[in-house]
Write a structure and sequence with these properties.
The chain is of the alpha/beta class. About 25% of the residues lie in helices and about 25% in strands. The protein has 2 domains: about 160 residues, Lyase, Ornithine Decarboxylase, Chain A, domain 1; about 250 residues, Alpha-Beta Barrel (TIM Barrel), CATH 3.20.20. The structure holds ligand LLP.
Protein backbone atom coordinates (compact mmCIF):
# COMPACT_ATOMS: atom_id res chain seq x y z
CA UNK A 1 0.00 0.00 0.00
CA UNK A 2 1.41 3.36 -0.98
CA UNK A 3 0.31 6.85 -1.97
CA UNK A 4 1.85 6.98 -5.47
CA UNK A 5 -1.08 6.79 -7.85
CA UNK A 6 -2.19 7.68 -11.34
CA UNK A 7 -4.43 10.76 -11.57
CA UNK A 8 -5.80 11.62 -14.99
CA UNK A 9 -2.91 9.86 -16.66
CA UNK A 10 -0.14 11.35 -14.50
CA UNK A 11 1.71 9.78 -11.57
CA UNK A 12 1.25 11.68 -8.32
CA UNK A 13 2.92 11.44 -4.91
CA UNK A 14 -0.11 12.09 -2.69
CA UNK A 15 -1.44 15.41 -4.15
CA UNK A 16 1.80 16.38 -5.87
CA UNK A 17 2.26 15.89 -9.61
CA UNK A 18 5.64 14.24 -10.18
CA UNK A 19 6.06 15.89 -13.58
CA UNK A 20 5.69 19.34 -12.03
CA UNK A 21 8.09 18.37 -9.26
CA UNK A 22 10.61 17.18 -11.87
CA UNK A 23 10.43 20.54 -13.62
CA UNK A 24 11.18 22.39 -10.39
CA UNK A 25 13.69 20.03 -8.74
CA UNK A 26 15.35 18.56 -11.85
CA UNK A 27 16.04 14.86 -12.32
CA UNK A 28 16.90 12.41 -10.95
CA UNK A 29 15.40 12.77 -7.48
CA UNK A 30 13.95 10.66 -4.70
CA UNK A 31 10.48 11.51 -3.40
CA UNK A 32 8.94 10.17 -0.20
CA UNK A 33 5.30 10.11 0.89
CA UNK A 34 4.48 11.13 4.46
CA UNK A 35 1.09 9.38 4.30
CA UNK A 36 2.79 6.10 3.39
CA UNK A 37 5.40 6.47 6.15
CA UNK A 38 2.67 7.19 8.69
CA UNK A 39 0.51 4.34 7.50
CA UNK A 40 3.27 1.76 7.55
CA UNK A 41 4.57 2.76 10.95
CA UNK A 42 1.05 2.81 12.40
CA UNK A 43 0.09 -0.54 10.90
CA UNK A 44 3.29 -2.11 12.24
CA UNK A 45 2.87 -0.62 15.71
CA UNK A 46 -0.80 -1.60 15.83
CA UNK A 47 0.07 -5.17 14.86
CA UNK A 48 1.96 -5.37 18.15
CA UNK A 49 -0.76 -3.68 20.23
CA UNK A 50 -1.43 -5.21 23.61
CA UNK A 51 1.97 -6.87 23.91
CA UNK A 52 3.06 -4.80 26.90
CA UNK A 53 5.81 -5.81 29.30
CA UNK A 54 4.97 -6.79 32.90
CA UNK A 55 5.77 -3.14 33.77
CA UNK A 56 3.22 -1.98 31.19
CA UNK A 57 5.68 -0.74 28.54
CA UNK A 58 4.50 -1.09 24.94
CA UNK A 59 6.94 -2.73 22.49
CA UNK A 60 9.65 -0.32 21.32
CA UNK A 61 9.49 -0.01 17.54
CA UNK A 62 13.04 1.15 16.84
CA UNK A 63 13.10 2.19 13.17
CA UNK A 64 16.29 0.90 11.50
CA UNK A 65 17.79 4.23 10.42
CA UNK A 66 20.08 2.58 7.86
CA UNK A 67 17.08 1.99 5.59
CA UNK A 68 16.58 5.72 5.08
CA UNK A 69 18.48 8.14 7.29
CA UNK A 70 17.02 11.38 5.93
CA UNK A 71 16.36 13.66 8.90
CA UNK A 72 12.82 14.46 7.78
CA UNK A 73 12.00 10.78 7.40
CA UNK A 74 13.30 10.02 10.89
CA UNK A 75 11.52 13.10 12.29
CA UNK A 76 8.22 12.02 10.72
CA UNK A 77 8.53 8.65 12.46
CA UNK A 78 9.83 10.11 15.73
CA UNK A 79 6.65 12.19 16.04
CA UNK A 80 4.64 8.98 15.86
CA UNK A 81 6.60 7.58 18.78
CA UNK A 82 9.20 5.59 16.86
CA UNK A 83 12.53 4.78 18.40
CA UNK A 84 15.69 4.28 16.36
CA UNK A 85 17.99 1.35 15.75
CA UNK A 86 21.38 2.81 14.85
CA UNK A 87 24.63 1.18 13.78
CA UNK A 88 27.08 4.07 13.79
CA UNK A 89 27.70 7.31 15.64
CA UNK A 90 26.52 9.11 12.50
CA UNK A 91 23.15 7.33 12.58
CA UNK A 92 22.85 8.02 16.31
CA UNK A 93 23.48 11.73 15.75
CA UNK A 94 20.86 11.76 13.00
CA UNK A 95 18.29 10.08 15.25
CA UNK A 96 18.96 12.57 18.04
CA UNK A 97 18.90 15.54 15.65
CA UNK A 98 15.56 14.34 14.24
CA UNK A 99 14.04 14.31 17.70
CA UNK A 100 14.25 10.66 18.77
CA UNK A 101 14.76 10.75 22.54
CA UNK A 102 17.84 8.83 23.77
CA UNK A 103 15.62 6.50 25.77
CA UNK A 104 14.22 5.20 22.47
CA UNK A 105 17.60 4.57 20.79
CA UNK A 106 19.24 1.15 20.44
CA UNK A 107 22.83 0.85 19.18
CA UNK A 108 23.47 -2.29 17.11
CA UNK A 109 26.31 -3.22 14.77
CA UNK A 110 29.10 -5.72 14.50
CA UNK A 111 32.12 -3.43 14.81
CA UNK A 112 31.44 -0.59 17.21
CA UNK A 113 34.56 1.41 17.97
CA UNK A 114 35.36 2.58 21.49
CA UNK A 115 34.72 6.12 20.28
CA UNK A 116 31.22 5.12 19.19
CA UNK A 117 30.59 3.33 22.48
CA UNK A 118 31.64 6.43 24.42
CA UNK A 119 29.38 8.65 22.28
CA UNK A 120 26.43 6.29 22.83
CA UNK A 121 27.01 6.22 26.58
CA UNK A 122 27.40 10.00 26.76
CA UNK A 123 24.07 10.38 24.92
CA UNK A 124 22.41 8.09 27.45
CA UNK A 125 20.76 5.75 24.94
CA UNK A 126 18.38 2.96 25.93
CA UNK A 127 20.45 -0.09 25.05
CA UNK A 128 23.53 -1.39 23.30
CA UNK A 129 23.20 -4.66 21.41
CA UNK A 130 26.51 -6.45 21.91
CA UNK A 131 27.85 -8.84 19.29
CA UNK A 132 30.65 -10.69 21.08
CA UNK A 133 32.55 -11.37 24.28
CA UNK A 134 35.46 -9.11 23.30
CA UNK A 135 33.02 -6.30 22.65
CA UNK A 136 31.57 -6.83 26.14
CA UNK A 137 35.02 -6.32 27.67
CA UNK A 138 35.63 -3.19 25.57
CA UNK A 139 32.21 -1.73 26.45
CA UNK A 140 32.82 -2.47 30.13
CA UNK A 141 36.10 -0.54 29.99
CA UNK A 142 34.49 2.40 28.22
CA UNK A 143 31.56 2.48 30.66
CA UNK A 144 33.85 2.23 33.67
CA UNK A 145 36.03 5.06 32.39
CA UNK A 146 32.90 7.19 32.03
CA UNK A 147 31.70 6.06 35.47
CA UNK A 148 28.41 4.82 34.10
CA UNK A 149 26.47 1.60 33.54
CA UNK A 150 24.96 0.58 30.22
CA UNK A 151 21.98 -1.66 29.51
CA UNK A 152 23.11 -4.44 27.20
CA UNK A 153 21.30 -7.03 25.11
CA UNK A 154 23.32 -9.84 23.57
CA UNK A 155 22.76 -10.36 19.86
CA UNK A 156 22.38 -14.05 19.26
CA UNK A 157 23.43 -15.81 16.07
CA UNK A 158 20.70 -18.47 16.00
CA UNK A 159 22.17 -20.43 13.07
CA UNK A 160 18.95 -20.07 11.08
CA UNK A 161 18.73 -19.78 7.30
CA UNK A 162 16.61 -16.68 6.65
CA UNK A 163 15.84 -17.86 3.08
CA UNK A 164 16.60 -14.49 1.55
CA UNK A 165 19.37 -13.12 -0.70
CA UNK A 166 22.79 -14.35 0.54
CA UNK A 167 24.14 -10.80 0.79
CA UNK A 168 21.43 -9.77 3.27
CA UNK A 169 21.24 -12.99 5.35
CA UNK A 170 22.67 -12.40 8.81
CA UNK A 171 21.54 -15.25 11.07
CA UNK A 172 23.46 -18.22 9.66
CA UNK A 173 26.44 -19.82 11.43
CA UNK A 174 28.65 -18.68 8.56
CA UNK A 175 27.65 -15.01 9.02
CA UNK A 176 29.68 -12.46 10.98
CA UNK A 177 26.79 -11.39 13.19
CA UNK A 178 25.98 -12.17 16.80
CA UNK A 179 27.15 -14.64 19.41
CA UNK A 180 26.69 -18.34 18.56
CA UNK A 181 23.63 -19.64 20.38
CA UNK A 182 25.50 -22.17 22.54
CA UNK A 183 27.86 -19.49 23.89
CA UNK A 184 25.14 -17.00 24.88
CA UNK A 185 24.38 -18.22 28.45
CA UNK A 186 28.09 -18.00 29.35
CA UNK A 187 28.40 -14.60 27.64
CA UNK A 188 25.37 -13.38 29.59
CA UNK A 189 26.98 -14.50 32.85
CA UNK A 190 30.20 -12.78 31.78
CA UNK A 191 28.21 -9.58 31.11
CA UNK A 192 26.66 -9.78 34.58
CA UNK A 193 30.15 -10.05 36.10
CA UNK A 194 31.64 -7.05 34.28
CA UNK A 195 31.64 -3.57 35.81
CA UNK A 196 29.55 -1.00 33.96
CA UNK A 197 27.46 -3.64 32.18
CA UNK A 198 23.83 -4.37 33.01
CA UNK A 199 22.66 -7.34 30.93
CA UNK A 200 18.96 -6.81 30.29
CA UNK A 201 18.17 -9.16 27.45
CA UNK A 202 18.87 -10.93 24.21
CA UNK A 203 18.02 -10.29 20.57
CA UNK A 204 18.42 -11.52 17.03
CA UNK A 205 18.18 -10.16 13.50
CA UNK A 206 18.45 -12.92 10.89
CA UNK A 207 18.23 -10.99 7.65
CA UNK A 208 16.28 -8.62 5.47
CA UNK A 209 13.49 -8.87 2.87
CA UNK A 210 12.15 -12.04 4.52
CA UNK A 211 9.18 -13.36 2.56
CA UNK A 212 8.60 -16.41 4.75
CA UNK A 213 7.86 -16.18 8.47
CA UNK A 214 9.10 -19.71 9.25
CA UNK A 215 12.76 -18.69 9.85
CA UNK A 216 11.55 -15.92 12.18
CA UNK A 217 9.31 -18.38 14.01
CA UNK A 218 12.26 -20.75 14.48
CA UNK A 219 14.43 -17.87 15.71
CA UNK A 220 11.81 -16.63 18.19
CA UNK A 221 11.46 -20.18 19.57
CA UNK A 222 15.24 -20.32 20.14
CA UNK A 223 15.14 -16.90 21.85
CA UNK A 224 12.36 -18.16 24.12
CA UNK A 225 14.46 -21.19 25.08
CA UNK A 226 17.37 -18.88 25.78
CA UNK A 227 15.31 -16.63 28.04
CA UNK A 228 14.32 -19.67 30.10
CA UNK A 229 17.90 -21.03 30.21
CA UNK A 230 19.38 -17.69 31.34
CA UNK A 231 16.68 -17.24 33.98
CA UNK A 232 17.23 -20.80 35.20
CA UNK A 233 20.86 -19.77 35.72
CA UNK A 234 19.65 -17.07 38.10
CA UNK A 235 19.97 -13.97 35.92
CA UNK A 236 17.10 -11.67 34.93
CA UNK A 237 15.99 -11.16 31.31
CA UNK A 238 13.82 -8.07 30.89
CA UNK A 239 13.95 -7.35 27.18
CA UNK A 240 14.01 -9.27 23.90
CA UNK A 241 14.86 -7.56 20.60
CA UNK A 242 13.20 -9.36 17.69
CA UNK A 243 15.17 -7.48 14.99
CA UNK A 244 13.73 -6.35 11.66
CA UNK A 245 13.57 -8.12 8.34
CA UNK A 246 9.95 -8.19 7.24
CA UNK A 247 9.85 -8.24 3.44
CA UNK A 248 7.73 -5.99 1.22
CA UNK A 249 6.22 -6.41 -2.26
CA UNK A 250 8.56 -5.14 -5.01
CA UNK A 251 6.98 -6.65 -8.09
CA UNK A 252 3.36 -6.15 -9.03
CA UNK A 253 1.80 -9.56 -9.46
CA UNK A 254 4.19 -11.45 -7.18
CA UNK A 255 2.59 -13.25 -4.23
CA UNK A 256 2.48 -10.72 -1.38
CA UNK A 257 4.91 -11.27 1.49
CA UNK A 258 3.56 -11.76 5.02
CA UNK A 259 1.73 -8.68 6.28
CA UNK A 260 2.48 -6.82 9.52
CA UNK A 261 -0.70 -8.43 10.87
CA UNK A 262 0.71 -11.91 10.08
CA UNK A 263 3.95 -10.87 11.75
CA UNK A 264 2.08 -9.50 14.77
CA UNK A 265 0.16 -12.74 15.15
CA UNK A 266 3.43 -14.69 15.06
CA UNK A 267 5.00 -12.42 17.69
CA UNK A 268 1.92 -12.78 19.91
CA UNK A 269 2.07 -16.57 19.64
CA UNK A 270 5.83 -16.97 19.95
CA UNK A 271 6.42 -14.59 22.85
CA UNK A 272 3.43 -15.52 25.02
CA UNK A 273 4.54 -15.88 28.62
CA UNK A 274 8.01 -14.43 28.12
CA UNK A 275 7.28 -11.54 30.49
CA UNK A 276 9.68 -9.13 28.78
CA UNK A 277 9.60 -5.79 26.99
CA UNK A 278 9.72 -6.48 23.25
CA UNK A 279 11.79 -4.43 20.83
CA UNK A 280 11.66 -4.51 17.01
CA UNK A 281 13.95 -2.96 14.41
CA UNK A 282 11.96 -2.65 11.17
CA UNK A 283 13.49 -0.64 8.34
CA UNK A 284 12.36 -1.62 4.85
CA UNK A 285 8.80 -2.36 5.97
CA UNK A 286 8.39 1.23 7.14
CA UNK A 287 10.04 3.18 4.30
CA UNK A 288 10.40 0.87 1.28
CA UNK A 289 7.11 1.60 -0.46
CA UNK A 290 7.14 5.21 0.75
CA UNK A 291 9.68 6.32 -1.85
CA UNK A 292 10.32 6.35 -5.59
CA UNK A 293 13.24 7.48 -7.71
CA UNK A 294 12.16 9.75 -10.57
CA UNK A 295 14.40 9.85 -13.62
CA UNK A 296 14.26 11.25 -17.14
CA UNK A 297 14.95 9.32 -20.32
CA UNK A 298 18.11 10.75 -21.88
CA UNK A 299 18.07 8.77 -25.09
CA UNK A 300 16.79 5.60 -26.69
CA UNK A 301 19.11 3.17 -28.46
CA UNK A 302 16.84 1.02 -30.60
CA UNK A 303 17.64 -2.67 -30.97
CA UNK A 304 17.21 -4.94 -33.92
CA UNK A 305 15.69 -8.36 -33.44
CA UNK A 306 17.24 -9.50 -36.73
CA UNK A 307 20.78 -8.91 -35.51
CA UNK A 308 20.06 -9.71 -31.84
CA UNK A 309 20.75 -6.26 -30.44
CA UNK A 310 18.63 -4.97 -27.57
CA UNK A 311 16.60 -1.82 -27.21
CA UNK A 312 18.11 0.37 -24.53
CA UNK A 313 16.35 3.10 -22.62
CA UNK A 314 19.12 5.28 -21.19
CA UNK A 315 17.91 7.26 -18.17
CA UNK A 316 19.65 9.94 -16.10
CA UNK A 317 19.61 7.87 -12.86
CA UNK A 318 22.27 5.23 -12.45
CA UNK A 319 23.63 2.47 -10.24
CA UNK A 320 25.31 5.08 -8.04
CA UNK A 321 21.86 6.52 -7.20
CA UNK A 322 20.02 3.20 -6.72
CA UNK A 323 22.44 0.32 -6.23
CA UNK A 324 20.03 -2.51 -5.42
CA UNK A 325 19.52 -3.84 -8.97
CA UNK A 326 23.29 -3.98 -9.64
CA UNK A 327 24.25 -5.31 -6.22
CA UNK A 328 21.52 -7.87 -5.57
CA UNK A 329 19.83 -8.24 -8.95
CA UNK A 330 16.86 -6.60 -7.19
CA UNK A 331 13.63 -5.88 -9.07
CA UNK A 332 12.06 -2.41 -8.98
CA UNK A 333 8.89 -1.81 -10.96
CA UNK A 334 9.32 0.90 -13.59
CA UNK A 335 6.41 3.15 -14.52
CA UNK A 336 6.11 6.04 -16.93
CA UNK A 337 5.08 9.20 -15.07
CA UNK A 338 2.73 10.05 -17.97
CA UNK A 339 1.93 6.67 -19.58
CA UNK A 340 0.50 6.67 -23.10
CA UNK A 341 -1.03 3.21 -22.75
CA UNK A 342 1.49 1.72 -25.20
CA UNK A 343 4.05 -0.81 -24.03
CA UNK A 344 7.58 -1.65 -25.19
CA UNK A 345 10.29 -4.19 -24.40
CA UNK A 346 13.50 -2.53 -23.28
CA UNK A 347 16.61 -2.80 -21.19
CA UNK A 348 16.67 0.21 -18.86
CA UNK A 349 20.16 1.45 -18.08
CA UNK A 350 21.93 4.40 -16.52
CA UNK A 351 24.85 6.38 -17.95
CA UNK A 352 27.56 4.86 -15.72
CA UNK A 353 30.35 3.07 -17.54
CA UNK A 354 29.55 -0.44 -16.37
CA UNK A 355 27.30 -3.09 -17.84
CA UNK A 356 26.04 -3.68 -14.29
CA UNK A 357 24.44 -0.24 -14.43
CA UNK A 358 21.16 -1.85 -15.44
CA UNK A 359 17.76 -1.32 -13.79
CA UNK A 360 15.79 -3.81 -15.90
CA UNK A 361 16.67 -6.31 -18.60
CA UNK A 362 14.45 -7.04 -21.59
CA UNK A 363 11.43 -5.92 -19.59
CA UNK A 364 8.00 -4.98 -20.88
CA UNK A 365 7.46 -1.43 -19.64
CA UNK A 366 5.32 1.60 -20.43
CA UNK A 367 6.46 2.97 -23.79
CA UNK A 368 8.75 5.97 -23.29
CA UNK A 369 10.68 8.35 -25.53
CA UNK A 370 13.63 10.67 -24.91
CA UNK A 371 12.62 13.38 -22.47
CA UNK A 372 9.90 11.30 -20.76
CA UNK A 373 9.92 10.68 -17.01
CA UNK A 374 9.97 7.28 -15.34
CA UNK A 375 9.58 6.27 -11.70
CA UNK A 376 11.57 3.43 -10.17
CA UNK A 377 9.13 2.22 -7.56
CA UNK A 378 9.69 0.99 -3.98
CA UNK A 379 12.96 2.88 -3.65
CA UNK A 380 12.39 4.40 -0.21
CA UNK A 381 14.51 1.82 1.62
CA UNK A 382 18.21 1.29 0.88
CA UNK A 383 17.99 3.75 -2.02
CA UNK A 384 19.43 7.22 -1.38
CA UNK A 385 21.32 5.91 1.63
CA UNK A 386 23.41 3.53 -0.49
CA UNK A 387 24.14 6.14 -3.15
CA UNK A 388 27.68 7.13 -4.06
CA UNK A 389 29.28 9.73 -6.29
CA UNK A 390 30.76 7.14 -8.65
CA UNK A 391 31.57 8.67 -12.04
CA UNK A 392 31.65 11.99 -10.13
CA UNK A 393 27.90 12.20 -10.24
CA UNK A 394 26.35 14.46 -7.59
CA UNK A 395 24.20 12.87 -4.87
CA UNK A 396 20.59 13.33 -5.95
CA UNK A 397 18.04 15.40 -4.02
CA UNK A 398 15.38 14.00 -1.74
CA UNK A 399 11.87 15.47 -1.54
CA UNK A 400 9.24 14.82 1.12
CA UNK A 401 5.57 15.20 0.21
CA UNK A 402 2.74 15.69 2.71
CA UNK A 403 -0.62 16.05 0.99
CA UNK A 404 -0.23 18.94 -1.45
CA UNK A 405 2.86 20.27 0.35
CA UNK A 406 6.38 19.28 -0.56
CA UNK A 407 9.87 20.21 0.59
CA UNK A 408 13.38 19.48 -0.60
CA UNK A 409 14.73 17.60 2.41
CA UNK A 410 18.17 17.22 0.90
CA UNK A 411 19.25 19.46 -1.95
CA UNK A 412 21.16 18.14 -4.93
CA UNK A 413 24.87 18.07 -4.22
CA UNK A 414 26.64 20.94 -5.99
CA UNK A 415 29.41 19.74 -8.29
CA UNK A 416 31.56 22.60 -7.00
CA UNK A 417 31.10 21.31 -3.43
CA UNK A 418 32.03 17.80 -4.54
CA UNK A 419 35.16 19.15 -6.21
CA UNK A 420 36.05 21.27 -3.20
CA UNK A 421 36.32 18.20 -0.98
CA UNK A 422 39.50 17.08 -2.75
CA UNK A 423 42.90 18.72 -2.31
CA UNK A 424 45.78 18.94 -4.74
CA UNK A 425 48.92 17.66 -2.97
CA UNK A 426 51.42 20.49 -2.51
CA UNK A 427 54.02 18.89 -4.79
CA UNK A 428 51.48 18.90 -7.60
CA UNK A 429 50.24 22.46 -7.37
CA UNK A 430 53.47 24.38 -7.86
CA UNK A 431 54.08 25.10 -4.17
CA UNK A 432 56.91 22.58 -3.98
CA UNK A 433 58.47 24.13 -0.87
CA UNK A 434 55.38 23.15 1.18
CA UNK A 435 56.08 19.50 0.49
CA UNK A 436 56.12 17.46 3.65
CA UNK A 437 58.97 14.98 4.05
CA UNK A 438 57.78 11.93 5.94
N1 LIG B 1 18.37 -4.52 12.51
C1 LIG B 1 19.60 -4.86 12.11
C2 LIG B 1 20.61 -5.24 13.11
C3 LIG B 1 19.92 -4.85 10.74
O1 LIG B 1 21.14 -5.20 10.33
C4 LIG B 1 18.93 -4.48 9.79
C5 LIG B 1 19.23 -4.45 8.35
C6 LIG B 1 17.67 -4.11 10.27
C7 LIG B 1 17.42 -4.15 11.63
C8 LIG B 1 16.55 -3.67 9.36
O2 LIG B 1 16.17 -4.70 8.52
P1 LIG B 1 14.90 -4.50 7.56
O3 LIG B 1 13.67 -4.42 8.43
O4 LIG B 1 15.11 -3.26 6.78
O5 LIG B 1 14.92 -5.71 6.70
N2 LIG B 1 20.83 -3.05 1.60
C9 LIG B 1 20.00 -4.23 1.61
C10 LIG B 1 19.39 -4.50 2.98
C11 LIG B 1 20.41 -4.57 4.09
C12 LIG B 1 19.81 -4.81 5.45
C13 LIG B 1 20.84 -4.60 6.51
N3 LIG B 1 20.37 -4.76 7.85
C14 LIG B 1 18.94 -4.11 0.52
O6 LIG B 1 18.93 -3.11 -0.19
O7 LIG B 1 18.13 -5.03 0.33
Amino acid sequence: MDHFADRNGRLFAEDVDLATLADVVGTPFYVYSTATLVRHFTVFRDALAGLASPAGEAPLVAYAVKANPNLSVIATLARLGAGADVVSEGEMRRALAAGVPPERIVFSGVGKTRGEMAAALAAGIYQVNVEGEAELHALSEVATALDTTVAVALRVNPGVDAKTHAKISTGGKENKFGIPLDRVPAAYALAASLPGIDPVGVGAHIGSQLTDLAPLEATFALLGDLVRTIRAGGLPVERVDLGGGLGIPYRAGDPPPPTPADYGALVRRATAGWGVRLLCEPGRMIVGNAGVLVSRVVTIKPGDAATGTRSFVVVDAAMNDLLRPSLYGAWHDIRAVAPTGDRMVATVVGPVCETGDTFAEDRTIDAVAAGDLIALMTAGAYGATMASTYNSRPLVPEVLVDGAAWAIVRPREELAAQLARDRIAPWLDGTENERRST
